[in-house]
Amino acid sequence: MSVLGAWLSPHSATGSSGLRARILLGTVCAGYSVGAAVGWGSPELARFMGDFGLAAAALVAAVSCFLYARVSAGRLRPAWLLFSLSSLMAACGNAVWGWYEVVLGVPVPTPSVADAFFLCFAPPAIVGLLVLAKRPVTRAGWVCLALDAWLIGGSLLTLAWSLALAHAAHMAGVQDASVGPAALSLAYPLLDIVLVSMVLALHFRRSGANRSAVNTAIAALALTVLCDAVFTSPLLRSTYHSGQLLDAGWFAGSLLLAYAPWGVRSRVPGTDRPGPPRAMSRPIAGSLAALTPYLAAAVCTLGILYNVVEGRRVDRVVIFTGCTVVLALVVRQGIMLLDNISLTQELAQKENHFRSLVQGSSDVIMIAAPSGTLRYVSPAAAGVYGRDAEDLVGAELSSIIHPDDLGRVVHEVRRFLAAPPHEEPTTRIECRFRSGTGDWLHAESTVNRHQGGLLLNSRDVTERVRLQAQLQHNAEHDPLTDLPNRALFTSRVRQALTGRRAGDSGTAVLFIDLDGFKAVNDTIGHQAGDELLIQAARRLQESVRAGDTAARLGGDEFAAIITGDGTRDQGAREYQVHEIADRLRLTLSQPYRIGPSEVRVAASIGVAFAEPGITPTDLMRNADLAMYRAKAGGKDRVELYAPQMQADVVRRSELATRLRTALREGEFALLHQPVVHLASGSVAAVAAQARWRSAQGILFTPAEFLRVTGDDDRTAELGRWLLEEAVKQAADRARAGHPVAVSVRLSATRLLDKALPFGSIEALLTRHGLPSGALMIEVADSDPRVSFDELEQRLVALRRLGVRIALDGFGSGFAAINALRRLPIDVLKLDRNLVEGVVESARLHKITSGLLRIACDLGLQSVADGVDVPEQVLALRAMGCTHGQGMAFSGPLDEYRLRRALVRGQFPVPGVPGPRTVMAGGSIPLLTGSHAETPVPPT
Asked: What 3 state SS string does 450-467 have?
């Protein structure tokens, strides 16, 4: 922006700078007016200010409009260039006038060069006004614009000719016979009439862009034309001299035109932004625009009547002008009539079109007055709401809205009406409407403003709302039991910890697991298991309080939130929650009726109390840990969370992680414990045992590291390593001259695992060259889920390979007798719990003796595990036990010490004198012959 533009523009700095510019403009104009009114103090100064002062003001206007046109890139740029040219002509004319009067000191000749410049002032201004006007879009519009201009111009010409111009033309012709002065005396008023006509005709057609600047420019030109009209009157023309008060009008008009492009509300070019739509023109402005042709005709009629009243002969110019004005008015009215007929037809078509759209729409369209009264309701209301549109018209909108939604709707409507229309043209409201049957329907309405009221476009979304509610319910509830699922339960826990009960240490979370549920699925089917879960969920839901939440987390795991009651006695609160949990345990442990059968399961419950600052995740984790502690402690019990549980979990997790690393890094070692013949002390076999020497130097036994892992994959991997390493070392010892059998303990579950296929042991024996009978598998029978049919088939296949079978832990398992009856057993290995008290307890002595007699009667050899003292050796040998294993002979040995023991010969046995050669008659005899039959008496 230029320096001049910056000085004139109120937006170039702040609002105060714009106010200062207007005050300065008014002060300068007022000062010039006062100076002109007092004659400037001297004739010379009056002539200077009247000529060069006006030239300077016009030059300022020319420069201002030109600079604005340079920075403007809009459609109005040519108009400001034309205004600049018009002002430049006025400046040149005043400068020439001053050259004659001030510099040369002679009267201005008529005509002169100044007249030529003054006459060139009007044409650019007229064209500039045409550019400022809103262009017609049709050919008829252009015709109407030309007719309106002629109506105004012709009427003004008629009136002016009647009042003054005819007399001026006559006087000019009388005083000077030349055509130039006469034409000059008429040229000024005629151009002014044309300029006034354009100003009035275009005033109601001006463009909406930069409206303030356009209005100011029109006002400046109107003031200039007014001063020209006064100047051309015969009374003032004869007495005018430079510096009079009339010059103040021209001066103010020029400065006002200079200020126009940088006006009060004009926008800086290039920074136009879309704003709110402007309001429609005021009714009075539209009325004046419609009355303009009739007012022009009235003015023309007044000019003719003036001649008639004065008794003058009506001039031919007046007659011709009046006739053309009337003709223009008739033509214009004809065009307007045709235009109105076309608009009426178009309006009727559009009305029919929109009426069809409204009546055929499936949405209900309603128009409500500002008071809330329904003034129109579309016919679709009958199908959507079940109510006739006529019944709703005249009713209050609030009468059909649900009372619970009314306050929210009123608040939203008031907020919407208070917002500016350009910022928020529409809004959306969802509420419940009363239907014709009295039911409440969910409706979604798009609301628009309509003549101070509201236009509502409503549709029934009841099914959508129901579907959304159902989807939300399904997403938050278990599909089988309809209890809250884990996501909703976690949200309820979060609410309990952060709501008004935040910090209440009495809030507790219960985790519940059904003990024995898997057995129900395995025995009577998953459908029965689902029915059991449904009944358990119902019992749980009925057992918790109204404010509490019961949930199913997945599988046979349930949970409950017991909200606190605000008591500060932690002990009393723990007792109360423990009592609730124990009551839940008893309720869930009651028999379940599943079809014709009755099923029993138990419940293990973990309880965790809220603490200040605890998160929902941590609280649920604590309850989960307590539940698993309850299961590990014997099941069917309630366990309260203690911080030590988390420490134990961390320790087990770290140990399990190190165990997985140890398998990859080869940190496991294989030890062997001799199995000694109790009658001779010779080594009959060696029992392979795995030991883990961790990187910290800690030596873990199998019972220690397998108990904490809980990882079936790692356990299977360790079992495979143990079996392969034991066979490999046994083969190496046999080749070194120590052909002693090796026993490896494998659980029945591991034997039936698909990771250990039938051919894997045969391939292992073949690969390492271990002879038949040199491998014995110790089978543990502690898992009740193992199928005896599959296990029997597996063991029979192994015996056909020459693998001997020992029943490990005999005397402790629940299925020992059944195992003896069905499985192909070669050796019975007594449980160490029977051996430990065989000397001290007479009752245990009789039990152990009876078991050994069973083994003897079945033709099976026996091995006592955990023989640690000589007294146990003597007692077991007296009962008929054939072999023993324990600290009474030797602990687990590494390969080097084992081979030294085998070379030494035998272990000392109480009551057996003298050393004997190792393996001499003391080994467990190899099985020979066919293994197709089980060597047990038939039952």
From this structure: ECCEEEEEEEECHHHHHH
- The interaxial angle of helices 211-232 and 246-259, nearest 10 deg, is 160
Mean pLDDT is lowest, of 71-85, 160-174, 576-590, 655-669, for 160-174
At 208, give phi and psi (nearest 5°): -75, -15
Task: Report how far residue 40's alpha carbon sits from residue 45's, in angstroms, rounded to the nearest whole number.
Answer: 6
β-pair type (440-450, 426-434): antiparallel
**What CA–CA distance (Å, rounded) separates 386 from 396?**
17
- The full length of the chain comes to 939
Give the whole-angstrom CA distance, residue 40 versus residue 244.
9
Judge whether 508 and 609 are in contact, CB under 8 Å. yes
Residue 404, token pair as written in the block: 């619970």
Backbone angles phi and psi of 649, in degrees to 5: -65, -45
Q: Rounded to 5 degrees, what angle do the CA atoms 362, 368, 373 make?
A: 120
**Secondary structure, 3-state, 618-638:** HHHHHHHHHHHHHHHCCCCCE
Question: Distance between CA 401 and CA 417 in Å, rounded?
Answer: 19
Q: What is the pLDDT of residues 609-646, one digit of tens each?
A: 988 888 889 999 999 999 988 888 888 899 998 888 87
DSSP string of 867-913? Answer: --SHHHHHHHHHHT--EEESTTT---B-HHHHHHHHHH-B---TT--
Q: Where are the alpha helices (DSSP H) in 264-402?
A: 283-309, 316-360, 381-384, 389-392
pLDDT in the model for residue 586: 92
Q: Would the CA dihedral through 446, 452, 453, 457 be positive or negative?
A: negative
d(CA 708, CA 701): 12
Select from 200, 204, 214 the least CA-distant residue to 265. Answer: 214
Sequence letter at residue 928: T
Cα angle, residue 682 at apex, residues 677 and 688 outer, rounded to 5° = 80
How far out from the chain centre does Cα 135 lie?
49
Digit-coded pLDDT (tens) for 706-748 = 555 555 566 777 788 888 899 999 999 989 888 899 999 888 8
Query: Cα(306)–Cα(297) distance, rounded to whole angstroms?
Result: 14
439 pLDDT tier (thresholds 50, 70, 90): confident
Asked if the bond preceding 937 is cis, omega within 30° of 0, the reply is no
| Tokens linked to 900 | 């030294």
Nearest to 729 by CA among 760, 761, 688: 688
Cβ neighbours around 763 below 10 Å, total: 10
What confidence tens digit (pLDDT) does each residue in 894-932 have?
Answer: 888 999 988 887 888 887 765 544 433 344 443 333 333
What would the pLDDT profile of 823-871 be if each residue is shown by its tens digit? Answer: 888 999 888 888 888 888 888 889 889 889 988 988 899 999 999 999 9
Q: Which residue has the higher pLDDT, 34 or 325?
A: 34
